[in-house]
Amino acid sequence: MEQSRPRLKENVIIEGNRSNLRFVLDIIMTLFFWCYTFMVMIFILSASFGYSNSITRVLNSAFKTTNGQVRLLFLFGLILFISFYMLLSINRIYNKKRFGSLARRTYPTNVTNKDLSNLQLMNAEHIEKLQTADYIVFEKNPIVSLEEEKES
Description:
Blueprint: H1 20-48, H2 54-63, H3 67-99, H4 113-118, H5 124-132, H6 146-151
Helix pairs in contact: 1-3
């Protein structure tokens, strides 16, 4: 008999067992990286549009760059993105022209009684019984073994 178990009112799909210290460290690290990302975005956008603020001046002096160099880097990234996009688009068009649009994920057709009897693993009479009857008891396994078929 099954043991009874406590029933909780709430459904908990995933339950973690991390400590409070680990939770606080996760939040601090996440906030740090969000702030870092925000500062980098401000730096790139303000340098790209020629707007000078304290973050841009500090980072330009730390990395010994100018707003023009940041714009060139941004332009280089944009050109690289566009060239990869174009190459992948051309490859897609080439594959469509060469192989055609492949119809994938189509369901196979329904199996008929004729298909099942063509396998020659079971008599047509047994196949019919299996499909029509609600409850069947076989005295002997009706499926023909593949090893027996090879021997004969």
